[in-house]
Amino acid sequence: MDTLNSRVEEGKPAIVEVSGVADAAGWAERNRDALHEVVAHHGAVLVRGLGLSDVDGASAVLRTLGVELMAEREAFATRDSHGEGVYSSSKWPPNQPMCMHHELSYALEFPGLMLFACLTAPTEGGATALADSAKVLAELPGDLVERFEREGWLLNRCYNEEIGLSWTEAFGTTDKAEVERYCSANGISFEWISGGGLRTSQRRSAVIAHPGSGERLWFNQIAFLNQWTMATEIREYLVDVYGQENLPFNTSFGEGGEITQDVVEVINKTYDSVTLREPWRAGDLMLVDNLRTAHSREVFDGPREVLVALGRPTSLPA
To answer: pTM of the prediction?
Structure first.
């Protein structure tokens, strides 16, 4: 195992710089435990200098480091699959940010480890920024945290063929009975609606304890999947055309109370106050503890190709 010296600068994630690596997958295998130790200490690490440049080579590194990769279910945006648990980043308009979130935090099984490989860096912007979820929890207003701890949060989704993902895309099947079995097994209420659509609702915890350390963490997608995080013109158009209950996704308090615009703004501003970022360079690799660290995708110009793998499948005690 090579010695890994991580560098931490204010406003940036931990960075490990390497050079002279001819076999990136071999380097990843030799240094897997050391990289995981850096992630355990800092919550995330960016590895620079591996020279990842093609899908096959980067995928081999991601599979080596991911411990065990999982397939994505209940997706909210399309991805290209590169086989065996490796995907493109979510297809999201470059001029629209993806705000801070924890991947699949609305599912009962989610990745404990996120892995990213940058094959093509954008000319401007497009960072995968990070935020420490324990710090977010500590900075949020106490009364808001208390309500979310007491009630949890609801994710409401409406799948159709016109906006967002269809249910066949999100669940990876055309069999309604299979979708019903999945929903029943995963605490999701469902209703088939006219036109072949599907409406679902699921209640989840907003604050969890890390299964390793027991640390309390803000772990959810309350703000990201709320209507008030959408660009104003997009939200107004969708509400006007489809109505509130038919938005592709929206969130509320666990007992059904509306999450207002000011609540979403408080959450997003709190994320902003603790955000770390380092612009992507082609060839970069990043590992992120998905429970301890939220991630986002900032707006960008130019081409951007980032591969994603969902590692270390995790579920929490009910």
So the answer is: 0.94
CA-nearest of 210, 191, 209 to 200 is 191
User: Which of 85, 65, 68, 86 is CA-nearest to residue 16?
Assistant: 65
Do residues 266 and 100 touch, judged by C-beta distance below 8 A?
Answer: no
Residues 6 or more apart from 16 whose CB is under 8 A from it? 4, 5, 6, 7, 35, 38, 45, 46, 47, 48
pLDDT digits (tens, 9 = 90+) for 196-228: 899 999 999 999 999 988 999 999 999 999 999
Integer angstrom CA distances of residue 128 from 16, 44, 65, 111: 16, 11, 19, 17
| N-to-C CA span, the chain | 38
Tell me how far CA of residue 97 lies from CA of 18, 92, 122, 126, 248, in angstroms. 30, 8, 14, 9, 17
pLDDT digits (tens, 9 = 90+) for 288-312: 999 999 999 999 999 999 999 999 9
Q: What are phi and psi of 278, to 5 degrees?
A: -140, 120
